[in-house]
Amino acid sequence: MSLITEEIKAKAEVYYGDEICQEKSKFLLTEMGLPNGLLPLSDMEECGYVKETGFVWLKQKKKTDHKFEKIGRLVSYGTEVTAIVEPKKIKKLTGVKTKELLVWVTLCDIYVDDPPTGKITFKTPTGLFRTFPVSAFEIEEVKDVKEVKETNNGVNINGSVSEVKEFPLAETLNSEQKSKAKKAKEIMSLMITEEIKAKAEVYYGDEICQEKSKFLLTEMGLPNGLLPLSDMEECGYVKETGFVWLKQKKKTDHKFEKIGRLVSYGTEVTAIVEPKKIKKLTGVKTKELLVWVTLCDIYVDDPPTGKITFKILAGLVRSFPVSAFEIEEVKHVKEVKESNNGVNINGSVNEVKEV
């Protein structure tokens, strides 16, 4: 449903046609102290600006995707883009999404630091934000704009674009998400006490811990390669509560090649394990672009769809094929028979097929 009513149009400066809309949109962004290449729509049919409220809209014939090469980010622009534009800020943005790994994430706010630091920040409705260099969004060669002098507004665009310098990405959590993070820290404070150990099956040494952790994951209907720790010193499992812990000598990073994802495992990993689920996970992070994001829950679809889902504290989820986390050949597990539990593992591992 379009936000642009006839009432809004009556109060606005309205323009028709791609050439004039390109010129006006770039000029407005520059006038507001924002990079002039932020909204690279193409084949525009209509644009408008209500100076009184800052409301702006852009309409193009069809949805377009644009890659900002200097930061390697893909952004999708719908047929109708709207926003509230203020000095150094774009608020209540609609019609624009950025690709966050394999998921399109809606953007809501964009702002440039004031006083200027050379950074521009993009915010999502979940509270996460990403910061990039302003220069990555500048259009370097726009001959019809470079020599424009708007003396009434004091704008003079005739300089060259400065060299882009990379800035670190950033993220933040809103109050609800901070509360979740606090709870996670409280859970961590309850880690492996002697009281917990007294109720648990505890094992020492890498070989037995590898065997037991993989067997437990398999028993719970989870991929046996989900927790690829190395050089483990200790592991334990409280059957009554599902609480499990794994300790390794040093932090390790593991790349799941089939999905190209890097995951970091701390020296101590804990979780509550249930059939087809891992909850309250601590000590595991996944690389979200250039930021390490803490995972909290993992679950396999039931009934099975061949997918496994990872959830982070901010509420975002990612789904991947279960087969990407299976260990294809684990010789020391193949012949294990757990007669007490009625489990007999003596077959070969099936060939992994992508879902």
From TrEMBL:
InterPro entries: At5g01610-like, DUF538. It comes from the Eukaryota. Pfam families: DUF538 (PF04398). Gene3D superfamilies: At5g01610-like. PANTHER family: EXPRESSED PROTEIN, T31J12.3 PROTEIN-RELATED. This is DUF538 domain-containing protein. It comes from Nyssa sinensis.
